[in-house]
Amino acid sequence: MGCALCGINRRGHGRQYTETAGWHAWQQPTQQQIKDRMYARRAARQAAAPTQYHARTAWMADNTGEDGIPYCADCGTEGCRQWMRTDTRLTKRRMELAGINPKRRSGAGWGGVESRPF
Questions:
Q1: What is the three-class DSSP state of 49?
Q2: What residues have CB less than 8 Å from 17, skipping those under 6 apart?
Q3: pTM, rounded to two decimals
Q4: In 3D, which of 104, 98, 102 has the Cα closest to residue 116?
């Protein structure tokens, strides 16, 4: 429902100036303008690249015989903020399912206690 002359929404329009119409108040768009704008938005959505969620994990060999170093498999970096946020949420959930309070962790790793490693 943008202005028929400039396309700005009614709420924030006020008085606007355009080269073709000069100073003007908001005007109701025609049905054809509404339809054309709707089709243009749809075409832009379909042409856009798919969203990257950065949720896939891969493991980089650390050459020490340990498990490896996790990293974001979507962008290939260890410092991907979206992946780290997802990984932190999943780790917290895994700890809760294992009966460990994630807010009261002691030591390193999952639990830090030999008798209850998970």
A1: coil
A2: 23, 24
A3: 0.43
A4: 98
Residue 71 tokens read as 């990293």
For the chain, how long is the longest CA-to-CA vector?
A: 78
d(CA 54, CA 52): 6
Structure token pair of residue 45: 């959505």
CA 77 to chain centre: 17
Amino acid letter, residue 39: Y
pLDDT in tens, 58-108: 777 766 656 677 888 888 887 888 888 888 888 888 888 888 876 765 555
DSSP characters over 79-114? --HHHHHHHHHHHHHHHHHTT--GGG--SSSSSSBT
For residue 34, pLDDT beyond 90: yes
Task: Give dist(CA 87, CA 72) in Å, integer.
Answer: 9
Q: Which residues pair with 3 in a beta bridge?
A: none
Phi and psi, residue 18, nearest 5°: -130, 155
Backbone angles phi, psi at 66, to 5 degrees: -80, -170
